[in-house]
Amino acid sequence: MLRAGVQKSRLSRCSGGSSAVEFAIVAPVLLFLLFGIIAYGVFFGAVHSVQQLAANSARAAVGGLDLVERQSLVDQHVAATVSEGGLLSLEALNVSVEALGEDSTYLRVVVDFDASHLPVWNLYNGLPLPEKNIRREAVIRAGGY
């Protein structure tokens, strides 16, 4: 009887497997957070790239004399920028240039990017992710005073 009591108190003091149990409880939460950080990091990188592409394309369009030449300059800039690598692909981009205002003193460059090919969407199905289409625009004055 005394021996059983000693054995019981020794088992209650033994904490050999507690680390494994704690890890089994905490690991799924940590992995979920890690995958979420990676997924949103890739997505925010793509959003930033699209915004930067729109701003730089608007700057490139200023050199054109008419809307057709400005669209051509923007297309050349987009092709050169995307070919350098990164998260964007030329097939998933749609870039348009339009004149704003009554006398066309402003230009708007709109960049639509279909982000469905990014690895974000296959990373983890339980993550709440934003839309697969990224749309950014930049407006710039088309020269003159």
Automatic annotation (TrEMBL):
One family name in Pfam for this protein: TadE
Keywords: Membrane, Transmembrane, Transmembrane helix
Segments traversing the membrane: 21-43
TadE-like domain sequence ranges: 17-59
Domain of life: Bacteria
InterPro entries: TadE-like_dom
Name of the protein in its database record: Pilus assembly protein
Organism: Henriciella algicola
